[in-house]
Amino acid sequence: MKKFIHKIGFASLGLVLFMFFNYCLNSYFIKNQQTELDSRVLLMGGSHINSGLNPIYISNSQNLATSGETYFDTFYKLKYLVNNPNNDIATVVFGFGYNNICGLNDDKYIKEPMSIKYIGRNYPIIPFNVFNSIGVNKIGYLKTIIRKMCLYPRVKHEEFLGKGFNYRLPNLSKSDAVKRVQWHYYLNDKVRKESERDIKYLDSIINFASINNIELIALNIPQRKEYYSAIPEVIKRKYNEIRKSLIERDIRLIDLLEMELDSSSFANHDHLSDKGAKIISKIVSDSLSSWKSF
Hints:
Elements: H1 2-31, E1 41-44, H2 47-50, E2 61-63, H3 71-82, E3 91-95, H4 114-122, H5 128-134, H6 138-150, H7 177-185, E4 186-187, E5 190-191, H8 196-211, E6 215-220, H9 225-228, H10 233-248, E7 252-255, E8 266-268, E9 271-272, H11 274-292
Parallel strand pairs: 1-2, 1-3, 3-6, 6-7
Antiparallel strand pairs: 4-5, 8-9
Helix pairs in contact: 1-6, 3-8, 4-6
């Protein structure tokens, strides 16, 4: 029996040492990771930007948006990328819609399975103490660290960059506007409060961009009227307050929310299809070009 216990003990010790070695090795890779960009114009934000702006039609641009990305995420991603002296970032086009300030964003690092997804994407660029300060699922964080850092060495830890532009096919007929609005803005049939955290981090993005001479362009993509007209008025009022403050701070705004597009331009009630993305990308490209000419 004692021999069996000793064998179990040695095997457990070996596993711990193996995991610790991988953790140290991956920590080294992260510390020395230098993510270099090919473009000076970054397209950042959540899935609305991820599937709404095709960099093929926007000169010198790169789509770094990721599904469900919050301003909290965007701030730390931009900060990380700017800290690499090899990157020369001139302009950031970022998503600025009602959903960007909705209270759903506050759940993304707390509730599973969402927390696993977002922690697993951003653990290389956001320290644990920062996660902890906003509220994080600690068990989910531990699971992520074990899975991403302790099982095997990974030279690149860059999930936060996303996978580039997300082509979406027209699929509006299968979309339910009421369900989309309920998901973003309601919890247990009550209107969610706005995300004070993300409103704060939007301000942090603006200040950080100003310090680093980065031009910000706020973009609100087209959505179906059945969707945006059903958004709670309290969210709309707060959004309009922030919108006014952006204009007062000389942040350029491209507001295409109510632009009418045919149904084939939408993947669902609040996301563009690849056809819609082509139209909007060209509008953004034209706007950037005209502003540079002044």
